[in-house]
């Protein structure tokens, strides 16, 4: 079994298998990817880079589409608010 | 970078086009915005993938690789002009890379996305697109042990339900909005498409305990404690009931990705890019294959892609025309079978969000002169998805057709616009983010 | 045939403001819009409510009109997004800093609050500006507004007071008669052309199109606090021949950033141009390097309705047309949003023969007619 990757999602360390998208990791960690304009939690909808509901803060950069991005070791991910 | 034939999209249509053009001596580059080639239907396809069960997929990938066509993944096209350039953005952990590609001929094989129709509760965490949830599971999200309702319309629903069941989910029901009477002629026609029947048999094996209810649809997603999904309200038009579930996978068939074609100025036939028998658009050096030219599924995408690739290479495609016509006819039957029922247009309540990017509720969209007026006054469709989700929904709800497509075709960092002018004879340029 | 006291052609922000002003008098008002209300120059513009001192007449009108915006700011619906953000004119070097001092005196004499910012104060106000800038001039009472919603507010007010809106193109408008594309014929004592850059109804209008590009980003709350404009903006805006760009950035209430600006004459193509965008962004990055990472949602262009002396045409069309029923509210170039309420007031004053709060002669269309220009020369 390949070595698990360690990523930080909203300050909690999570272990994921290589090949996992950041959007999938956020769902596994039960964290919303973004907080909507009116303050509601949202998660990925389309899973294919179209809807932008999965955008989150990745390594300090906000509005990244997480469903199109693979997890990397030591990545930090936060809910986009 | 220069290509005789530049293909946008590495799904079945793009793969077929690239293979045909490259096998006939063209220098071919394929651009795709996903992490790996295969498109949505063949998501995750690689030559050496051990769990690749679909033989057709593996064969197509191997043949593509042998053809010499170069496939570049992770590239989102954000700018294009018909005179021969396309600009892409590649986002990597270490920075953004902007690339410019020059082409003689362009094949648009941009595929389709799910259609979403707003209903109360559809923005709750736990509500996904049908293909959307499948894609997320392929991306590593496990649904093992979760109770899932699969709903909406289209042939995708069964494929999704099967895939989710294979991942360990408990599919409590599959709800198809089309009636059995609507579906029957389409189902009967599948006898002429044995490959599709084999797939159907696989669904049966996996889902033998799951009720498949035609003529039923979800009218509301209901939250439990906290802001996550607990159950859905379902109706068959006369009776309404509640089905508890952890997740809802709901999508209303497909809408074509035609933004690049529209931006280039290709002529349209209703919602689709207009093409001739060689898959040529109204622009002489631009071709289009697969779903953007008419939703007709995998086989149509393959044959249209091959025709486009041969046409780009100046080869005859006469022998493929019969197959192509048959697949188009299949698409027409499919369209009839999964035509949307009128009741779906009255699902949103005044406070139901229609534009998820800007949180614009249904009530605010009413009373405007049209799309442009509504956009200006409510910001509907002005968020990062650029109307790709709310646009097709609004077309159903209010009858407004989408309006102008603007740059960038996808949100990009400001620096992406600083790429040197096309007139300077550049190949590949790297613009690295500063730490 | 329906009769009105006044028919206004064009439901952009200027036409809508004029409609409300007329409706407030109790007049029978008709508004004619052939496209999308507020869908042309109003939609394309930034929504910066700003005092500009290019000339004494420009200073007088922008200051007057800004005072009307501010007086009403608490009455607007939320959608108008009026915010008293203030403008900072950014000085890049000591030479520009000297100009800041001169400018402050001009503002002071006109009774407009403006304070000098040192380099350190500027950095504190806007931490995302690069280090090493010389300072700036803060004009705290300038504002930011969402123009399509402001225009819609004026139009809704006019309708509430009895105005009627016709959604059709005006095919002809002269001698108290207006004919619409849907066959409707209307009549009115006065016809106001508030047509932005569309001069078909009166080809003699001395208006040139001046193309501009704008860029809007995704939401980045607190990245920016004031509207920032480089001090060289006036120089750039002045150029009549060359294409020019200047750093001009606005914080929207949504947290989005609106980035400008470009000016081009003799280019009527609506497409965004890669070269102009690149020059705009390069310019902006010289002031705010952190911008380059921000996500862009959309780029668009628009056309400013420019006049030869950079002042609008407010008043009777005399000199441009022998039709005494024709009035103009046009040619606002880049200040249509700022000047809309002021222009509406001046136009109605003119119709009533009433004295205005400021001297309105500088804006009379007759000044740009051939005899007037010859006399001036």
TrEMBL record, chain A:
Keyword Oxidoreductase among UniProt keywords: yes
Top enzyme category: oxidoreductase
Protein name: Sarcosine oxidase subunit alpha
UniProt entry keywords in alphabetical sequence: Oxidoreductase
Pfam family, one: Fer2_4
Superkingdom of the source species: Bacteria
Highest classification ranks of the organism: Bacteria, Pseudomonadati, Acidobacteriota, Terriglobia, Terriglobales
Keyword Oxidoreductase: yes
GO molecular function, one term: iron-sulfur cluster binding
EC number from the UniProt entry: 1.5.3.1
UniProtKB/TrEMBL annotation, chain B:
Pfam families given in the database record: Pyr_redox_2
Highest taxon of source: Bacteria
Residue span(s) of domain FAD/NAD(P)-binding: 4-295
Gene3D superfamilies: BFD-like [2Fe-2S]-binding domain, FAD/NAD(P)-binding domain
Record's keyword terms, sorted: Oxidoreductase
GO molecular function, one term: oxidoreductase activity
Entries under PANTHER family matching the protein: ANAEROBIC GLYCEROL-3-PHOSPHATE DEHYDROGENASE SUBUNIT B
Name of the protein described by the UniProt record: NADPH-dependent 2,4-dienoyl-CoA reductase/sulfur reductase-like enzyme
Organism from which the protein derives: Granulicella mallensis
Lineage of producing organism: Bacteria, Pseudomonadati, Acidobacteriota, Terriglobia, Terriglobales
From TrEMBL, chain C:
GO cellular component assignments: cytoplasm
This protein's UniProt keywords: Oxidoreductase
A GO molecular function held by the record: oxidoreductase activity
Domain FAD dependent oxidoreductase residues, every copy: 5-349
InterPro entries: FAD-dep_OxRdtase, FAD/NAD-bd_sf
Taxonomy, superkingdom: Bacteria
4Fe-4S in keyword set: no
Name of the protein described by the UniProt record: Glycine/D-amino acid oxidase-like deaminating enzyme
């Amino acid at each position: 079994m390949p070595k698990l990757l360690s990523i930080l999602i909203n300050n909690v360390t999570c272990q994921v298998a290589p090949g996992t998208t950041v959007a999938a990791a956020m769902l596994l960690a039960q964290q919303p990817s973004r907080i909507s304009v009116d303050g509601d939690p949202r998660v990925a909808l389309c899973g294919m880079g179209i809807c932008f509901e999965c955008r989150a803060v990745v390594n300090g950069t906000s509005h990244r589409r997480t469903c199109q991005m693979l997890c990397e070791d030591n990545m930090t991910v936060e809910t986009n608010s | 970078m220069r290509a005789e034939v530049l293909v946008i999209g590495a799904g079945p249509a793009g793969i077929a086009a690239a293979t045909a053009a490259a096998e006939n001596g063209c220098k071919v580059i394929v651009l795709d915005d996903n992490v790996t080639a295969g498109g949505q239907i063949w998501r995750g396809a690689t030559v050496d993938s051990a769990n690749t069960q679909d033989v057709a997929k593996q064969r197509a990938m191997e043949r593509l690789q042998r053809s010499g066509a170069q496939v570049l993944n992770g590239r989102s096209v954000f700018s294009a002009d018909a005179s021969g350039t396309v600009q892409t953005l590649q986002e990597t952990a270490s920075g953004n890379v902007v690339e410019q590609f020059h082409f003689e001929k362009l094949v648009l094989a941009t595929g389709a996305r799910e259609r979403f129709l707003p209903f109360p509760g559809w923005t709750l965490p736990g509500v996904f697109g049908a293909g959307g949830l499948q894609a997320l599971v392929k991306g590593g999200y496990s649904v093992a042990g979760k109770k899932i309702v699969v709903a909406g319309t289209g042939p995708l629903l069964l494929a999704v339900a099967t895939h989710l069941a294979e991942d360990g989910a408990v599919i409590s029901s599959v709800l198809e909005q089309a009636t059995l009477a609507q579906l029957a002629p389409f189902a009967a026609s599948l006898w002429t498409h044995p490959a599709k029947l084999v797939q159907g048999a696989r669904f049966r094996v996996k889902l033998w305990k799951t009720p498949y209810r035609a003529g039923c649809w979800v009218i509301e997603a209901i939250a439990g404690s906290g802001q996550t999904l607990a159950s859905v309200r379902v109706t068959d038009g006369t009776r309404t009931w509640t089905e508890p579930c952890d997740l809802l996978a709901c999508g209303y068939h497909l809408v074509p990705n035609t933004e690049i074609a529209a931006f280039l100025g290709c002529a349209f036939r209703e919602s689709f890019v207009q093409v001739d028998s060689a898959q040529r658009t109204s622009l002489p050096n631009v071709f289009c294959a697969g779903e953007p030219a008419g939703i007709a599924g995998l086989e149509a995408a393959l044959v249209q892609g091959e025709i486009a690739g041969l046409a780009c290479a100046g080869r005859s495609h006469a022998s493929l025309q019969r197959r192509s016509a048959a697949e188009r006819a299949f698409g027409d039957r499919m369209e009839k079978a999964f035509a949307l029922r009128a009741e779906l247009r009255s699902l949103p309540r005044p406070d139901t969000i229609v534009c998820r990017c800007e949180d614009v509720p249904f009530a605010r969209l009413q009373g405007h002169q049209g799309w442009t007026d509504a956009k200006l006054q409510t910001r509907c469709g002005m968020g990062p998805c650029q109307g790709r989700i709310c646009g097709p929904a609004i077309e159903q709800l209010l009858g407004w057709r989408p309006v102008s497509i603007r740059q960038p075709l996808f949100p990009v960092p400001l620096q992406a616009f600083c790429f040197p002018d096309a007139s300077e004879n550049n190949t590949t340029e790297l613009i690295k983010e500063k730490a | 045939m329906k009769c009105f006291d006044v028919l206004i052609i064009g439901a952009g922000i200027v036409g809508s403001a004029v409609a409300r002003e007329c409706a407030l008098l109790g007049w029978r008002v008709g508004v004619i819009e052939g496209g999308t209300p507020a869908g042309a120059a109003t939609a394309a513009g930034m929504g910066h409510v700003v005092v500009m001192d290019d000339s004494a007449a420009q200073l007088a009108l922008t200051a007057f009109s800004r005072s009307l915006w501010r007086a009403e700011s608490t009455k607007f619906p939320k959608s108008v997004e009026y915010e008293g953000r203030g403008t900072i004119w950014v000085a890049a070097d000591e030479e520009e800093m000297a100009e800041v001092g001169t400018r402050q005196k001009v503002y002071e004499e006109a009774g407009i609050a403006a304070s000098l910012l040192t380099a350190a104060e500027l950095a504190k106000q806007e931490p995302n500006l690069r280090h090493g800038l010389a300072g700036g001039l803060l004009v705290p009472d300038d504002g930011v507004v969402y123009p399509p919603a402001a225009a819609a507010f004026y139009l809704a007010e006019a309708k509430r007071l009895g105005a009627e809106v016709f959604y059709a193109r005006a095919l002809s408008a002269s001698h108290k008669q207006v004919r619409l594309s849907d066959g409707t014929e209307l009549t009115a004592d006065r016809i106001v052309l508030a047509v932005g850059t569309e001069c078909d109804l009166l080809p003699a209008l001395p208006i040139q199109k001046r193309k501009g590009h704008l860029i809007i980003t995704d939401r980045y709350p607190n990245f920016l606090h004031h509207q920032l404009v480089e001090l060289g903006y006036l120089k750039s805006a002045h150029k009549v021949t060359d294409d020019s760009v200047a750093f001009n950035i606005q914080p929207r209430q949504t947290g989005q950033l609106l980035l400008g600006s470009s000016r081009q004459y003799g280019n009527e193509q609506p497409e965004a141009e890669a070269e102009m965008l690149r020059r705009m962004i390069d310019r902006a990055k010289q002031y705010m390097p952190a911008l380059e990472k921000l996500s862009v949602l959309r780029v668009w262009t628009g056309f400013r309705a420019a006049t030869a002396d950079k002042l609008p045409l407010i008043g009777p069309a005399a000199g441009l047309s022998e039709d005494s029923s024709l009035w103009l509210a046009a040619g606002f170039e880049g200040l249509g949003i700022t000047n809309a309420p002021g222009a509406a007031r001046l136009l109605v004053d003119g119709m009533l023969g009433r004295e205005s709060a400021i001297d309105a002669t500088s804006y009379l269309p007759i000044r740009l007619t051939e005899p007037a220009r010859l006399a001036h020369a």
